[in-house]
Design a protein that fits this description.
Blueprint lengths: L12 H20 L4 H9 L5 H8 L6 E3 L4 E5 L5 E6 L2 E8 L2 E8 L21 H9 L3 E5 L7 H6 L11 H6 L5 E5 L2 E3 H8 L3 E5 L4 E3 L3 H8 L5 H5 L1 H4 L8 E3 L2 H13 L25 H4 L10 H6 L8 E3 L7 E8 L2 E8 L10 H16 L4 E7 L6 H5 L2 H14 L4 E10 H5 L9 E4 L4 E3 L3 H8 L1 H6 L3 H13 L4 H6 L5 E2 L5 H18 L12
Parallel strand pairs: 5-6, 6-7, 7-9, 8-10, 9-11, 14-15, 15-16, 16-17, 16-18, 17-19
Antiparallel strand pairs: 1-4, 2-3, 4-5, 12-13, 13-14
């Protein structure tokens, strides 16, 4: 850039602008250094990228435009001339991801570990400018989390301690009902940054380098006397697999960025738009013969529900959310004829598909995500009921399961229920919406009722079975007698199930219904009455 400023007036306008541009260039140079070469090298030595490198990796090339790029803490000489400028601990701006505008930001761990630097207005985090921008411009928000939030040293700098909630999560909560929010946890996150990761529609953390918790090991040791590592306290084994606080695990930071990109590709820019259509050319009338061999003849044998799903959805379109949590149910974003849908499928390989408390919580969150962003849901059902037993009762399975039934009944999006094999009891109620058109399809292998024949006979005919000369034989006789009434074709005669279909017809039929739903979705655009997605 030329630094020649011709003097066109006697007041020295050219000299003035030369000085101002030089000052701007000097300040930009300070900011570019981030926390200094040593801190940048330390960040790289732990296998992590700097926030600016992350922004370059996740956004379209050349699309990131910084906001508040000169924010920081200046050091001045006795003449009030700038000596150095330490950048703000948060880098934020607008950018494009796969051509679509987003608001994006993240902590710069090379500067004071990414902790708040005490500006008049926060750039990011709870109450930050970038959240306000996402709200007012109705564009997705992407959080690149690499910080521990507040620090006790802030009180010394301010001269007082702030009351909790001064910089609250009000905007973060509001955004959940307006625009997609995705968070990548790229280091240890505690306090506010950890809270923002939870207040996301989708979150991902990196294996081996990321942890999430309310408070770290020093606080745990001081308050409880327990010595524990960061990984054992809040690594993926805990935060993803056990608690479900974070949705997915990534192998690397680049993998985390790809997952965020893929997640956003299924969703609209905001709740006032429809999800984008992306037709990859997979024929909607494709009928796979292999669907006739997926479900075993023996109804007690498990099968691969993910394999079954892959023959129905657009090829290569599956994006599973929370694959390692609540594994009795599978939740994934996918496409049918190019149109985004949510798939909720029971997993016969885990508890025979029975719904436990974790699976119920997982299903609830996913149903609310789809309802918020106008994605129709396809249920692929093989559920024998709620998980039973002492452990299930102690875990609150009944309460969480009934919440799933309630939420399913409140959905405003189109739902298609396809019974693959079993659909029993109250867990079966959580796979359809009786307050809507309640479209139920089934394969000839489908069976349903209040409870399976086996358990039902043992309960209803207990005395008769116990009094028989051969109790086991009598039990089997009663089961065979009642099983004749469980044929799905008898239910179809009464129009209690709308259609029995050939498994090979599944994809064409589902694609047709999802295409029909488009106008209905358009009429229902806008925020739902409830406040977005519950964490």
């Amino acid at each position: 850039m030329s630094r020649t400023f011709p003097v066109t007036e006697k007041d020295g306008t050219g000299e003035f602008w030369a000085e101002q541009i030089d000052e701007l260039t000097r300040r930009r140079a300070f900011i570019k250094e981030m926390g200094g070469p040593d801190n940048v090298a330390r960040q790289h030595s732990t296998g992590r990228l700097t926030v600016r490198e992350r922004l370059d990796r996740i956004t379209d090339k050349g699309s990131f435009r910084k906001i508040g790029s000169l924010a920081g803490t200046g050091a001045y000489d006795e003449n009030l001339k700038l000596k150095t400028l330490t950048p703000a601990t948060y880098v934020a701006g607008t950018a494009r991801i796969n051509g679509r505008p987003v608001a994006i930001g993240g902590e710069d761990f090379t500067v004071r570990g990414g902790t708040s630097f005490g500006a008049q207005r926060l750039k990011g985090g709870q109450g930050g400018y970038i959240e306000d921008l996402a709200h007012h411009y109705k564009i997705p928000l992407v959080n690149l989390i690499d910080g521990a939030g507040g620090t006790v040293t802030s009180a010394k700098r301010r001269g007082f301690v702030t009351f909790p909630g001064t910089d609250g999560f009000e905007r973060s909560v509001e955004l959940l009902a307006e625009v997609p929010v995705a968070s990548a946890v790229l280091r240890t996150a505690a306090g506010g940054p950890a809270g923002r990761a939870i207040l996301s529609h989708f979150s991902v953390m990196v294996q081996g380098t990321s942890q999430v918790f309310a408070a770290g090991p020093p606080v745990v040791k001081r308050s409880l006397g327990q010595t524990i590592s960061k990984e054992d306290l809040g690594g993926p084994a805990v935060a993803v697999n056990k608690s479900g606080a974070i949705h997915n695990i990534a192998d690397t930071e680049d993998d985390a960025f790809e997952q965020v990109k893929q997640f956003l590709s299924y969703l609209p820019q905001n709740v006032w738009q429809l999800p984008p259509i992306d037709d990859i050319g997979d024929p909607v009338d494709r009928c796979d013969e292999e669907l006739l061999s997926v479900v075993p003849e023996n109804r007690r044998h498990p099968y691969d529900m993910r394999r079954l799903t892959s023959h129905i959805i657009d090829q290569g379109s599956a994006f599973e959310i929370r694959p390692t949590y609540g594994r009795a149910v599978i939740t994934m974003l996918a496409r049918l004829g190019g149109r985004p849908v949510g798939i909720i499928a029971n997993n016969p390989k885990v508890y025979a598909g029975a719904m436990d408390a974790d699976a119920a919580r997982k299903q609830i969150h996913f149903m609310e995500l789809c309802d918020t962003f106008h994605l129709p849901i396809v249920f692929l059902v093989d559920v024998p009921g709620f998980m039973v037993g002492l452990q299930a009762e102690e875990a609150g399975t009944l309460r969480e399961g009934m919440r799933a039934v309630y939420v399913a009944g409140q959905l405003k999006i189109p739902i298609v229920t396809l019974v693959i094999r079993k659909c029993y009891g109250m867990a079966g109620m959580a796979t359809c919406n009786k307050n809507d058109i309640d479209l139920k399809l089934a394969w000839p292998s489908g069976e349903w009722g209040s409870l399976p024949v086996e358990g039902g006979v043992a309960a209803a005919f207990r005395r008769e079975i116990e009094a028989a000369d051969d109790p086991k034989a009598r039990e089997q006789e009663l089961e065979a007698e009642l099983r004749a009434y469980t044929s799905p074709f008898r239910t179809a005669e009464a129009l209690a199930v709308e259609e029995i279909i050939d498994p090979r017809e599944t994809r064409p039929i589902l694609c047709e219904y999802i295409a029909l739903a488009e106008e209905r979705l358009r009429i229902g655009l806008g925020p739902r009455s409830r406040a977005g997605v519950a964490p």
